[in-house]
Amino acid sequence: xxxxxxxxxxxxxxxxxxxxxxxxxxxxxxxxxxxxxxxxxxxxxxxxxxxxxxxxxxxxxxxxxxxxxxxxxxxxxxxxxxxxxxxxxxxxxxxxxxxxxxxxxxxxxxxxxxxxxxxxxxxxxxxxxxxxxxxxxxxxxxxxxxxx
Length: 148
Hints:
Elements: H1 7-24, H2 26-33, H3 40-48, E1 62-68, E2 71-77, E3 87-94, E4 98-106, E5 113-120, E6 126-131, H4 137-147
Antiparallel strand pairs: 1-2, 2-3, 3-4, 4-5, 5-6
Helix pairs in contact: 1-3
């Protein structure tokens, strides 16, 4: 396991995707529902701004639309995390327009891995909601449901 996040992974999940979420909101969810949204090109574009050794392939990157009670959710599955703060998943919730992540973490003392439920606000502030659920879609969506 790496002790620092890979730049490509971090920039995509914690900068580019939340920025797009707050800029385009429900349009992203609609595009995904209609099959018009693929994030591979965005992933590649983020990597183009990095030195060649820092670029990652979009293996495992996918999107799906879900419902949480009366809200639509764009669920993004990210390439498998290998370091703390890299995310397993991101979710854009509309119409409330919230952006959540389920991040990898580990305890330096014993190396035990766990997840952290995070949220980015439209002001660019990262909120740590504490220990998260197992890194699977349904527990992540259930945790989001309790917060939104």
